[in-house]
């Protein structure tokens, strides 16, 4: 059997399983949310107190069910941010050491943990980003968000992490995800979203990025899958490993800086084969052929 045939066979088995596991996952999330605020006393009596505002106390078995259901739901159809968020919550509890060490070893990382900034904007603040000069990080971020029609408000809160500081680190990581898209000049296509996930895994050690990218390539067309493994995966692994920890960047203080200077300081380099470059080359070639 060819590799493509094997991949297709696996995908056909995953999709029905995703429906079953996804249903169970939805039920567990719904029950947890339904009993969330009203069952704090019950959770405390079982030794599982609410540790922060959005925390939902869950057992190890419930976390395993949430993780498997979220992973299969993501594999069985178009990725949903809430599925990826639940997967991250349920699988990260044992993997925060690398992220914490990196933040504590950096003065800015320690300040972030102390001050607990959150990514949020008023309407006036958002429009101010658009007025920043071309080439600034602020303008690049604003343009990237507008081009892809996405909002900072869509990031799900952390719920299933059983440590308050760890929950903040994961929330910060989640809210900075669009900054990573900007600094790496990656759009929100399936291929480039997967590349970002692998980059994040190498940066933080959190397994959600690796798990998210394990089966998702099966949904890509053969041409896109070949391009993903040939160009994006090697770049994401190397760049993610060698770049400075982006989790320790106080992005809110970077608005006026040149995005190129930030990339240089962070040790980040851009993938030559990324979509924005190949798209521009195709447009240029099309324009040239039209003129001739």
Topology:
Layout: H1 3-34, H2 40-45, H3 60-76, H4 81-91, H5 97-104, H6 107-115, H7 123-130, H8 137-147, H9 164-175, H10 177-184, H11 190-204, H12 208-215, H13 222-242, H14 259-266, H15 275-291
Helix pairs in contact: 1-3, 3-4, 8-10, 11-12, 11-13
Characterization of the model:
This protein is mainly alpha-helical. It is built from 15 helices and no strands. Helix 3 runs antiparallel to helix 4 and helix 8 packs across helix 10.
Secondary-structure-based class equals: mainly alpha
Radius of gyration, in angstroms, nearest whole number: 20 Å
Helix content: 55-70%
Tell me, briefly, the overall form. Answer: globular
**Unreliable parts:** 1-47
Features:
single chain; 292 residues; mainly alpha; 15 helices; 0% strand; disordered N terminus
Q: What would you say about this model in short?
A:
This protein is an all-alpha fold.
